[in-house]
Amino acid sequence: MLSAIDPGLLDDVEKLRTLSIAAYAEDDQASFSEAETLVAGFSPERAEQVARAFTAYFHLVNLAEEQHRIRRLRERDVPGRAETRTDTFAGAITQLTAEVGAEETAKRVAALRFHPVLTAHPTEARRPAISGAIRRIAALLQEREDPRLGYAAGIENERRLLEEIDTLWRTSPLRSQRPTPVDEVRTAMNVFDTSLFQVVPRVYRALDDWLLGAEAGVAPARATSFVRYGSWIGADRDGNPFVTAKVTRQAASIASEHVLLGYEHAATRIGRTLTLSAEDAPASAALNELWTRQRALGGFAADELEQRSHTEPHRRALLFITRRIIATRTRDADLAYTGPSELLAELRTIQSSLREGGATRAASGELQHLIWQVETFGFHLADLEVRQHSKVHRQVLAELRAGGSHSELTDEVLEVFHTIQSLQKRFGVNAARRYIVSFTQSSEDLGNVYELAQHALGADAPVLDVIPLFETFADLNNSVDILTGALELEPVQARLAATGRKLEVMLGYSDSSKDVGPVSATLALYSAQSRIAEWAKNNDIELTLFHGRGGALGRGGGPANEAVLAQPPHSVDGRFKLTEQGEVIFAQYGDQTIAARHLEQMASATLLAEAPSNQARNAQASATYASLAAQLDESSRNRFYELVHAEGFAQWFGRVTPQEEVGLLALGSRPARRGLSLESLEDLRAIPWVFAWSQARVNLTGWFGLGTALASVGDTELLRSAYAEWPLFRTMIDNVQMSLAKTDERLARRYLALGDRDDLAQLVLDEMALTHEQVLLTSGQSELLEGRAVLQRAVQLRSPYVDALSLLQLRALREIRATGSADAEDRPHRLMLLAVNGVAAGLQNTG
């Protein structure tokens, strides 16, 4: 394919590939230097072509790995095997039953809640057109797995596969302009349409089948709709001037359109199959009453259905429901539903009638799936969660209290409350009742939101659950005092009374890590969760902790189900809420089989987090290793401060990573920094901070300070005991192994040299070497990821190809620095973005 475009391109790609593999596998400095020389000699056009070739390779490799994972998941799906794995419904419920008994387990399963919140990503590198091509190739790969695929169909599949691969290669990976928040909403909707809408009832069915056993598919469902989705996309205005009240309205309307279309198609499909006659499945009295009401509403439409399905009462009732769903979507007030509860009541009437008439399988089949979907998604699909910075609220309130004319900012902030009120009236209170306050530093920051709502609408203010977001080290330490102060606020007291004393508290993984380093942040987050959980218990509050995790290891990334099991006792309590960002959304939910597995793993971990054995293990380890935790915290934080508090560090960071250049590129709608220039770390958002270090192949945000902290302990046996017995510590060490495995010392040295600060460069390199040494010593392994052979092999196979792209990125970065160009359209910047795309695809968890 490459040779058909340019006969010499394939040769150049192969030369660079061969040299990169030799340099990595054999630690051959000569091959590395030759690869650098080769890259430096490419013409600008050739450099871009080579970057695109390696990037396309990673897209295809990622698909191959995904397909292998799907294949393995299917191979494991055999009778009796699920019960042996605690990351399945069967295994988790079996273990929980053994520990707390069947009755208590049933209560916990019924109360289970998993709440992912989709967020846009300011460094999402992949263009939607590329994502679309990848998904089409994925569908063709899955088709090839079908053993029924005949010879002719196989030939056709191969033709289409090559066509799509060629299309992927010829599709520009670069966006022509920065995406708008509405573009980001539509990208997320694609995941809903192709995966989430179908996967959610499939997951509930898997749980229900296990709970019902031999009665599965016949008896009434016992599995509850335990998943709820939230979204910040189009609602998170913290630092994003492009998210306005108008955009938030658009985001809600787009989401509603998609979910109602989903219901419309599902109800039509199911209705057409409910051809059970009145003789074989008699209509119940309640169904006849429903049809009477439908006829009164429907006029001609009801008459038409009566004529076509006169002897099929369940069919005509459900097809009329389809008409009402359409009316709800098109806002036809005469037929539209007032809310999802009205739709659910009618669906359940049909279901009960089928059951009474003996058609239990029809009652428990696809109709139950539709009921689960409506329970999960409502008419709004995902709860929109507005987020704004506490500083903005203080600024606007100061202006309002002073009187006089309003600034544009004040008008916009007040308009948000009008939007929330409008959305609640249209879709219900749950559609937009959560309001998150970034950088909550006092209870007054929470009260400010309620005061702003009063300024906007007075007595007609919308229902609000104001959620504190604790992000910095200081705010995490002060969290309990702030929450105690919040209990004295009248609006908070009123909401607690209305909700049965339910409260959400959000914890920020990104900024806390940027604030004090990954080790101290991990320990501070654990401590805050433990203290907040104890505070909630003492104040009779049903707490939900909301984890602001990202995909990168410097932002709380890593295996999420393992992280759930490492939480403090009573901090989960059957409810787990977290953010799913950018690349994570595509990776976790892009394929239906993987999405179902992700949801099952997370739900199983949420159940098991409060198992007595897991609680005892975490509580005992936390007490046993409290002094170790304190030492790791102090040592790692001091080492981190030594770096980031060094004079000129922020400017140096901007020179040794592609952070400044990435900020010019059309990656996401949200600006990468808060100010016009990078004068301090406070000016930089946490996500680009992580992204830039990963692109520079240093991954500093995932490990810096840990080596010094471990070395300061001076007791290998103690560290190994902690690794064996302390889940939080083990998870941290294992995640650092992954982070270090994706670094490259030779490339890191070249990036760090761009800053002309040998002292800071050497400090980073010394800590990298020390952390590598100490992590292996602590884990008792001879090489990184030794205990995770599949992941280790995947990283080893990928790394040489990422190295090639990093060399191309370095070339671009040097050219940009040499010329001082800030033109995002020039050749060096084009090469930079192509390499950014490729490195992100190769490393996968980059931000």
Overview of the molecule:
With 847 residues, this protein is mostly helical. 66% of the residues lie in helices and 6% in strands. It contains 39 helices and eight strands. An eight-stranded parallel beta barrel has the order 1-2-3-4-5-6-7-8, surrounded by seven helices. The longest helix has 33 residues, at 44-76.
Short description:
This protein is mostly helical.
Secondary structure layout:
Elements: H1 2-5, H2 7-25, H3 29-41, H4 44-76, H5 89-100, H6 102-111, E1 113-119, H7 128-144, H8 151-170, H9 181-212, E2 230-231, H10 245-273, H11 285-298, H12 300-308, H13 313-330, H14 340-356, H15 360-364, H16 366-377, E3 383-389, H17 390-402, H18 408-427, E4 434-438, H19 443-457, E5 465-470, H20 473-477, H21 479-486, H22 490-499, E6 502-508, H23 509-516, H24 518-538, E7 542-548, H25 560-565, E8 575-581, H26 583-589, H27 592-608, H28 612-624, H29 626-644, H30 649-656, H31 659-664, H32 686-695, H33 706-713, H34 716-725, H35 727-741, H36 745-752, H37 758-779, H38 789-819, H39 827-843
Parallel strand pairs: 1-2, 1-8, 2-3, 3-4, 4-5, 5-6, 6-7, 7-8
Helix pairs in contact: 2-3, 2-38, 3-38, 4-7, 4-38, 4-39, 5-6, 5-27, 7-8, 9-10, 9-16, 9-27, 10-13, 10-16, 10-18, 11-12, 11-13, 11-14, 12-13, 13-14, 14-16, 17-19, 18-19, 19-21, 21-24, 23-24, 23-32, 24-29, 29-33, 33-37, 34-35, 35-37, 36-37, 38-39
